[in-house]
Each structure stands twice: as C-alpha cells, then as structure tokens.
Amino acid sequence: MAALVPVVAVAIAHAYMIVTKPPPASLDITVESALFTYVIMPVIIVSLGAVYFMWNSRRSEEEEAKTDDLEAEEIDDTVAKSVDSEKPAEANASEVPDNEQENASNKDKTS
After folding, report:
1. SS (H, E, C) 13-28
2. What distance lies between CA 110 and its chain's CA centroid?
3. How many Å from the N-terminal Cα to the C-terminal Cα in the chain?
4. I need a labelling partner for 78 at 20 to 30 A (CA). Which of 15, 46, 50, 94 fits?
5. Spatial separation of the C-alpha atoms in residues 6 and 75, rounded to whole Å
6. Angstrom distance (rounded) from CA 48 to CA 52
7. Whose CA is closest to 15, among 29, 35, 31, 45?
8. Cα 6 to chain center, whole Å?
9. CA 28 to chain centre
10. Closest to 14 measured CA to CA, from 30, 35, 33, 41
11. Among the listed residues 50, 38, 51, the one whose alpha carbon sits nearest the alpha carbon of residue 12
C-alpha cells in the first residue's frame, strides 16, 4: 500500500492542474468530467490492481507455507521411521560383541 503514495501524489498534482487551468479550447469538457476521467478512474484502477496483486501474493505465500508444513511433516515421518529401523540394528550390534566374548571364553576353555 505504500507504493500507492506516489500514485496519489501525482493524482493530486494532476487534479490541481485540471482545476486551476482552463481546459483546451478544442475540447468541450467540464472540470468534473476531466477530474473523473483523468484522475479518479486511473487511481481507482491502479488501487484495485495493487490490492489484487497483494492479495494474490499472500495467497501464494500461504500455499507455500502449507506445502512447507506438509514437507516438514513428511521429513519428520521419514526420520522417525529411520530411527525406528535403526533401533533393531543397534540391538543386533550390541549382541555381536557378547557372542564374540562367549566364543573367546569358549576358546580359552578348550585350549
């Protein structure tokens, strides 16, 4: 909305020029219709365009945030699954040294 400040400033300056100077002799136009045609309508059109694009960018940002949240949840799910799958491997890894210790003690007894 701050970008509309120059638009309004130019519109005010343009309106001032229309009101204080007489219209060209070749045009049969009143001050009111000139203000409406050359000041008010362009400001309305530019303002509506700015509001539309601002609304459209917010909507796309919200959609990106939703997809980011979904991706983060999927990543959390895959991390949780990988942690769960690593637990049995760790249990098996801890059993291997125990077995080796038993085998080593059995070898000592046989010799």
Report:
1. HHHHHHHHCCCCCCCC
2. 72
3. 90
4. 94
5. 46
6. 6
7. 35
8. 26
9. 50
10. 35
11. 38
Alpha carbon distances (Å) from 73 to 17, 68, 76, 79, 104: 60, 9, 5, 10, 47
Q: Give the residue carrying structure tokens 């990543």.
A: 75
CB-based burial label for 94 (10 Å; 0-12, 13-18, 19+): exposed
Give me 64's structure tokens: 């990106």
Return the structure tokens found at 83.
């942690």
> For residue 9, what are its two tokens?
């400033």
Angle at alpha carbon of residue 10, lines to 28 and 45, rounded to 5°: 75
Q: Which residue has the tokens 């007489």?
A: 22
